[in-house]
Amino acid sequence: MNKPVIQKPIKVENSPIPGSRKVYETGVRFPDIRVPFREVALHESANEPPVTIYDSSGPYTDENFTPDIEKGLPRLREQWIVDRGDVEYIEAREVKPEDNGNVSEGALAPQFPNLPKVIRATGTKSVTQYEYARAGIITAEMEYVAIRENLRRQELGRTEAAGVIRDGEDFGAEIPDYVTPEFVRSEIARGRAIIPANINHPEVEPMIIGRNFLVKINANIGNSAVTSSMEEEVEKMVWAIRWGADNVMDLSTGRNIHNIREWIIRNSPAPIGTVPIYQALEKVNGVAEDLTWEVYRDTLIEQAQQGVDYFTIHAGVRLAYVHLTAKRVTGIVSRGGSIMAKWCLAHHKENFLYTHFEEICDIMRAYDVSFSLGDGLRPGSIADANDAAQFAELETLGELTQIAWKKGCQVMIEGPGHVPMHKIKANMDKQLKTCGEAPFYTLGPLTTDIAPGYDHITSGIGAAMIGWFGTSMLCYVTPKEHLGLPNRDDVKTGVITYKISAHAADLAKGHPGAQAWDDAMSRARFEFRWQDQFNLALDPETARAFHDETLPKEAHKTAHFCSMCGPKFCSMKISQEVRDYSAALTDNERADIENGMADMSQKFRALGSEIDVPAE
Amino acid sequence: MNKPVIQKPIKVENSPIPGSRKVYETGVRFPDIRVPFREVALHESANEPPVTIYDSSGPYTDENFTPDIEKGLPRLREQWIVDRGDVEYIEAREVKPEDNGNVSEGALAPQFPNLPKVIRATGTKSVTQYEYARAGIITAEMEYVAIRENLRRQELGRTEAAGVIRDGEDFGAEIPDYVTPEFVRSEIARGRAIIPANINHPEVEPMIIGRNFLVKINANIGNSAVTSSMEEEVEKMVWAIRWGADNVMDLSTGRNIHNIREWIIRNSPAPIGTVPIYQALEKVNGVAEDLTWEVYRDTLIEQAQQGVDYFTIHAGVRLAYVHLTAKRVTGIVSRGGSIMAKWCLAHHKENFLYTHFEEICDIMRAYDVSFSLGDGLRPGSIADANDAAQFAELETLGELTQIAWKKGCQVMIEGPGHVPMHKIKANMDKQLKTCGEAPFYTLGPLTTDIAPGYDHITSGIGAAMIGWFGTSMLCYVTPKEHLGLPNRDDVKTGVITYKISAHAADLAKGHPGAQAWDDAMSRARFEFRWQDQFNLALDPETARAFHDETLPKEAHKTAHFCSMCGPKFCSMKISQEVRDYSAALTDNERADIENGMADMSQKFRALGSEIDVPAE
């Protein structure tokens, strides 16, 4: 294979998040575990401990880390995996010209220069987290995610008081006050959670997807035949995790798929998902009818050996369901679903992903690639939501989940799509029932079709709701949905929007660690700690920039007002006065007021003027 | 009074919405009624009638209209009002220097040059829509809104088939298939809906706010002491209604309040709301303790005579409730609420808005100013949602609603604020019960506190949900919330976000006219009518710009793909093939397929290649 060189150095954003410091928590069972968090120190006047925030951004935001994209990230899981004694180094499948779309020499994306040795399970062993969990084994990955989910609440000594706020409606979820490694194990063993972590992706910082954990989000990147390059996709991946993407799917469909993917995986601390049928289709020159099980199988192995953490597999698009979509307003909108539907019809045969499902399981278990059972028949419009085609496929996904578990694989289930608000809960309820509580992973759903250019919002609404109802991971939608390939700004907007949806869902579910972040922000607001407000914001840069548009001076960072209301009309200022007044009351005085007996106006007036109002 | 001149000509955006045509529907009972709609004609290949969209933008988007800001809009309701024979022209209250904050001569905003004569009810008559409705009278305003709500569904001959889609969960609302003037009257008479339309705002295009009508949105504009000018505020008003604001609140708190308001009202086809306490406070130099009933009363009359359509009145902030906020994380966050709380404590007296409530009603009924009973104790953080202070005030608002109705006034109730998703429905249910089904008008609610810079989204989620549950009007939140005064871009983003929330709510409630818009968009998507997709978008300019970023050529406007997936991977294209195939089947063939008896692959392949894929 020829070896083109990189035309320009790949530059990724690797500054720390403004106002945050990277900190690490070590493991107890596995002392070499170092779980990253983002810590926001507050102004000393707050007299509060720093706020710990879940950190998906990887080492890139660590000021002590210097990224080397051509070398890739440290392979932190390598030793854990080898120590389990059930894998072997193997001869990697050789890269073939068609893996990169038979691209001509000049157009070939460079191969990643520091390839790891490929491993797989010894013999027919299953090396999945599911299999370990079933066997009662707590892995390093399990302890890692347990620490990660707790957000250092115990360590900060807020165990009883501020640390655990249980106020929510969880619709039958079973979220514990604190996550233990044993709880993680038991959730995985029950199929209710997965840790997507291919043994060939040792760079991954383990994360867990399940209804009883924090709601996660996925960002899609990937080039298409029309636009985008390898450098852009690596940059987008780093950019997406910086703002909060827990997982990243590489949905590339153009040429150079194999090589681009290698660069992404080697540099990604987040699990990487793909839809292998996209590459398989490229290998048969885009002719769906020419797809074969052999081409697909070879693609699964190719990608499993590269380290892809989960595969979207549209095995539920059965021949008999395809005609159910004919009368739909928008037919089949899943790319993978439509490819398989076309194949089924062209051959008038059952979907080969369905007929070969057990063989697929055998590949998945040998590398611990998680299933993301694709919803190829998801609705693409409000009109088609919750129809016969969609729910027929969901039933099949439930059957396949059972088979995958029997084979020792980790499974999650993909969901819609476009669904009006009143039909969202039915999706969640049906998925839980049909798929044995396997984690649900939904795209949006979009709650209306009328706003192209704003589908991060139409879908962010549905995502928050279905997250509350029980979806474990939300696949983001960017403002470019339905219109074009998202750029860097769109990726950020999509990620921030979905972090909002996921966090709103955590709050509503009553996740015990969620509200601490909101409360820290609210106290900072009430006390006019502007710098703390910026630092605590999901997007500190935008928060500060918006504030500074009208009040740019440093002095305004301690001002007891903003330009929205100006100093005289600031309610926070006035209610601070109310609070001071109330605090200054004796118990007797308070009782007298409640009984309408006392006139405390003098006392209040005496206090009222103490609040500092800086001159304009 | 001195008369400064306008420094620069005020320029408002008055181009038609791209791809839309302004059309008017005339009245039956009142033949001079002309109800505006926005009509989107579709490509001839669609073979569909044009889509009619609710149009809040006023004459500015009519290509036959030339705005003259110094003259103001046509006074279309003037004759209707005079014809009712219950009003008289009066000597207007004289404008006083303090009305404009005693601003120095050089800094005074110019007076509006074409002031209308002021009218009020003759004697002690009530001239409210509520009073007419109670008396069994159908007004021109009532027929106007009836026509407006129906979106020309009858006229287009889609009465039975496509025109009425009843699929939703309305939580006990009683939305009719078609809105008749009599239905409007009966809803207003029951207090379940209001038409905010001051008799001194004859420029207003009547609109209705109520649970059994389309969900409306309000945009806030207004200068503050720190920033913004009169010209900017008029431009913002026109800009806000252009993108879909049904109502506009002028929340100015700086100087020149009186003059700025006059310019806004005279040029606004949308109802204008204010919070009179803001101006009253300016008149006493910002010292809350110095507020008096007399100053406030005079301000109500001043604004009622200018034509303000609804007043936010914080009469529910009772002395006994104030101390309930002392332990809150964010105290009192309503500006009006905090002013009244401060007044109550400083004087240790009951809120004068509460003690003088019947006198306030007498002013409101004489001009038909609607009440917007303010939620001065709404929560300002997730931590404070649904607390004792909030719900105590809501009970009082329920009492006041009954008094206002007895006095013949129109009433709506303001609601929160910051509320996590699981606590939203309790707000709606409690409001309906406590306030006799008077329309609910909520700010957001924001579903999390962690995202300053994105609070249009944190709140758009809550707004969609509470709209679904029964809120009649949603007060927008812009990206600048908590950070500064919104600019033009922020206003647009806030309005579009809230149109999404409102429409998503209409869909989920099963509003019979709502889904037609989504379906038209979805069909355009499926058939690759890009131009139709742009034209049907809530924001046609952004939709087109996003598409053109990667595929700018005119030829791409008919391409059967976009840059997101490229031509080979376009699922819409493939599923069109599936549909063509299915349509080409005979009944026997279809039955054979369902029974697994037929191999139709030849037939499918023959059709599969017919779809046109333009070269890249």
Describe this structure in words.
- The structure is a homodimer of 616-residue chains.
- The first copy, chain A, has helices spanning 78-83, 129-134, 140-150, 181-189, 230-243, 257-266, 276-283, 293-306, 319-322, 335-347, 352-355, 357-367, 388-406, 424-434, 455-469, 488-509, 515-526, 530-536, 540-550, 571-584, 587-594, 601-608, and strands spanning 20-26, 34-40, 51-54, 87-90, 118-121, 193-194, 209-210, 216-221, 247-250, 272-274, 310-313, 370-373, 411-415, 440-443, 473-475.
- Chain A is an alpha/beta fold.
- In chain A, the strands form four sheets. Chain A has an eight-stranded parallel β-barrel with strand order 8-9-10-11-12-13-14-15, surrounded by six helices. Chain A has a three-stranded antiparallel β-sheet with strand order 1-2-3.
- Chain A is globular, with a radius of gyration of 26 Å.
- Chain A starts with 19 loop residues before the first strand and ends in an 8-residue tail after the last helix.
- The interface between A and B is large, with 134 and 134 residues.
